[in-house]
Amino acid sequence: MSQETTAESVIRCEHVTRTYRGTGGARLVDRLRDDGERPATTAVEDVSLSVSRGEVVGIEGPSGSGKSTLLHLLAALDVPTHGTVSVCGADTADLSRRERTRLRLEDVGIVFQRFHLFPSLSARANVALPLVELGVPKRERREHAERLLDSVGLASRTTHTPRQLSGGEQQRVAVARALITEPSLLVADEPTGELDTATGDRILSLFTEAAARDTAIVLASHDRKALDIADKVITLRDGGRTDG
Ligand code: ADP
Ligand code: MG
Prior knowledge:
The chain has a domain at 53-79 and 105-241: 3-Layer(aba) Sandwich (Rossmann fold). It has eight helices and ten strands. The protein has helices at 28-31, 67-74, 97-107, 123-133, 138-151, 167-179, 197-212, 224-228, and strands at 9-20, 41-52, 56-60, 82-87, 90-91, 108-111, 185-189, 216-220, 232-237, 240-241. The strands form two sheets. The chain has a six-stranded mixed beta sheet with strand order 6-7-8-3-9-10, sandwiched between helices. It has a four-stranded antiparallel beta sheet with strand order 2-1-4-5, with helices on one face. Helix 4 crosses helix 5, helix 4 runs parallel beside helix 6 and helix 5 (138-151) crosses helix 6. The two termini are 16 Å apart. The structure holds adenosine-5'-diphosphate and magnesium ion (MG).
């Protein structure tokens, strides 16, 4: 058990390693490659970390240091090769794929660098999407999505599609979608990387507000300002923590 672990932990990550298999493997796509064999890559190596309710943890490190891989593990999008990740008390490796999907839907909000919005859906429908999967009735979904869009300053954009929105507006839609289920955990991968300063600041205040409502937040970033909202910052180099 890590010393940082407390009963309040939303995430407990113990000695986690994630190795991506190299090419030259049995899959057809690997055998068809013409770039020769690639060795297996250990993207994250022996990382331990815990995150409490309402705590904001920043992850810094150069490109390729394992930030996105670690975030995928913490968000239960992926499972470790070694070690354990528990999210809200559930060891992610013990869950079936379907159970992990359910865990993400109910407990985890995810914000990607490039928004990942559905291009054919309005801002409101994008934000409401998790509620569709949770079986919330339509009128309630709409009202809730509109309230959230209002809170991120997009009340006048609810019926716009992503293409009709600026990058910063799209990212605010993505944040609203991640928060609509009031998740215990919000995971954000370079969420301000592509935004102007004012929009970046706005996204960061939404995160701070969510943390004040007890959401645990893990945020990978190169952006000093983003790391400044964190209660603690961990540093990755070649997949391992170097912050002691
Ligand atoms: P960061 O987000 O810090 O840039 P990543 O977690 O994306 O780092 O990548 C860490 C290492 O793992 C890099 O060497 C990268 O090339 C490798 N990697 C990431 N994803 C995959 C994958 N799906 N398959 C093989 N190697 C990967
Ligand atoms: Mg990354």
